[in-house]
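W.,

You were right to be curious about this one. When I first looked at the sequence I had no strong expectations either way, so I just let the prediction run and decided to look at it fresh. Below is the sequence, 240 residues in total, followed by the output.
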Amino acid sequence: MPTPHNEAKIGEIAKTVIMPGDPLRAKYIAENFLEDAKLVNKVRGMLAYTGNYKGKEITVMAHGMGIPSVGIYTYELFKYYDVDNIIRIGSCGALSQNLKLFDIVLSEKVFSESNYALTLNNEDCHICESNVELNRLIKKVANEEDIKIVCGNTLTSDCFSPYMTNEEETMKRIPRDFNPISVEMEAFALFYNAKILNKKASCLMSVVDSPFIKEIATTSERETGLNTMIKLALEAGIKN
C-alpha cells in the first residue's frame, strides 16, 4: 500500500531507482530519457516516474534536499516498495582543487556529523560506504561509455556549505585519514538506509561549485547540463 509520502501502488516502482534531488530534474529525465514514462507519485511535489530505458523498466524519483528528506524517501523505497538499488545523482561542491566544474564524482565513503544513524537505529555511526558491487558496475559502464569519473570520499553536510560561518573548523572535525574530495547533503542517509536494510546504493555527483574556481553553475545548467551523469546512472541502472 502507499506510504504517507508516496502514492505509488506496489508494483509501480521499479527495482532500480535513479534519484535526483530536484523534482524538476526527475521530470526532465523522464521526458528526455525514458519511454512510456508514467507519473506514479506527486505527493508534496516529489515527482516519481516509471518508464523504460532501452527496453528495461526503471524509476526516476526526486528525494528533496538534506538528510531527513532523502532518509524518508529512500527508506520507504527500500522497505515498502522492495527497491533493490538506488543511484543518487546530484550536485556537489569541490573540496579538491583537482576537480573542475561538471566533473563527475563517484562517492566511495561518506562522513557526516549528523545523528541520523543514532536516531533511526541507535547506532553511533558517522562513516558509511556505498555498495562496492554497484560502484564497480558504474565504473565498468563509465569505462565502456568513455565517461571520465573521479572516485573518492564525500562529506555529507547538514547545511549548504557556502553558508557555513567557518568551514575550516568543520573540516578539522573530519577524521584525519578521510580526505573528502566533495561535499553534498544527502548521501549518508541513503547509504545508511541501504546498509541496515541490506540493499544497494551509490551516489554520482556533478561538481557545480568550487572555492578554487570563480565560475558557478547556473540553475539552468544544474537542471539540464548534467546529461552525461544521467546517462551513466541509467546505463548502470539497467545492467544491475
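Here's what jumped out at me. Residues 118 and 218 are 36 Å apart (CA to CA). And, maybe more interesting for your project: The chain has one domain: 16-239.

Coffee later to discuss?

I.
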